[in-house]
Amino acid sequence: MPESKSRDKGSYTAPTAKSGVVKPNPRWFAPVMVGFLVLGLAWVVTYYVSQAKYPIPDGGNWNLMAGFGVLLVGFAMLTRWR
């Protein structure tokens, strides 16, 4: 039976790691992020405490959507914080 020819394989070379330096966030990033989180929480709490009369009187349950939307912006910024 004929033997297969062996292939000459080079040694494995691991891919080089990216040498990009992780830059810190700007100084304004953390205060803005905390501001969005506090504003969203205050919006939702105000809605519940005022029995749906405030922050926007005719907003109804859209006030909850606005408050949670502001909170989500804060949480999205939290994932980018270094």
UniProtKB/TrEMBL annotation:
Residues that span the membrane, as ranges: 28-50, 62-81
Subcellular location: Cell membrane
Protein name: Cell division protein CrgA
GO biological process, one term: cell division
Function of the protein: Involved in cell division.
InterPro entries membership: CrgA
Gene: crgA
Origin superkingdom: Bacteria
Chief location: membrane
Keyword list, A-Z: Cell cycle, Cell division, Cell membrane, Membrane, Transmembrane, Transmembrane helix
Native source organism of the sequence: Spongisporangium articulatum
Residue ranges, compositional bias (Basic and acidic residues): 1-10
Entry keyword Disulfide bond: no
Family: Belongs to the CrgA family.
Membrane topology: Multi-pass membrane protein
HAMAP family cross-referenced by the UniProt entry: CrgA
Region of interest (Disordered), ranges: 1-22
